[in-house]
Amino acid sequence: MNRMFRKIAALAAPAAAALLLFAAVASAHVTVSPAQSSTGAWETYTLKVPSEKESATVQVDLRMPAGAEFKQYEATPGWEVTVEGNKVSWIAKDGGIQAGQFQRFYFTAKNPDSAGNIAWDAYQHYADGSLVQWSGEPGSESPHSITAIAEASGSADGGHGHGAADMSGSGTMTMDEHQAIVEKEGASTGTSPMVYITLGISLVSFLLAAIALLRGRTE
């Protein structure tokens, strides 16, 4: 029995490490938040881009969903923004997003007038010439983010989202607006259920390895 536990421990340790690595990579998606907004609102969205390769991310293209209208963006040092039809591109002028780093880009868009889900297709360009298309369905290897658009409740600000203050022309956001973005961003990471499954398997593997180690010490 002790020999069996030792074999399990020898296999479980590297397996747990590999599964934890897989879970970390699987959750590192290009995302757009918040995950919920209202019809007709001028919403301030956050585009979060992690670099998952050794090569730097040098350009990100985002397609505006049908019915959504791009309005403004917050200037990001080291990045140039271009708008062509429904495509908005952030292009690095110096270095880009290095491996192990991520960058947030903020923009304001007018939501569709009809309730429903809108999908954000993103295209990540790396310095080595490779392209990752974040345009798959939720649960796939490269999912796009989804924002659920609900009927507006007729708020006093005329249906504007928390990004309405950006329309002053300053191109910047207040601290309260940034805090609201941070609080809502966690709801739309686009993480696949497979991530939680792999984390559970990793935990079980770790426990088996710990049991085997304790049994070995008591011999």
UniProtKB/TrEMBL annotation:
Segments of this protein annotated with the region Disordered: 153-172
Signal sequence, start to end: 1-28
Keyword Metal-binding carried by entry: no
Transmembrane domains' residue ranges: 194-214
UniProt entry tagged with the keyword Ion transport: no
Alphabetic keyword roster: Membrane, Signal, Transmembrane, Transmembrane helix
InterPro entries from the UniProt entry: YcnI-copper_dom, YcnI-like_sf
Residue span, YncI copper-binding domain: 29-142
Annotated protein name in UniProt: Uncharacterized protein YcnI
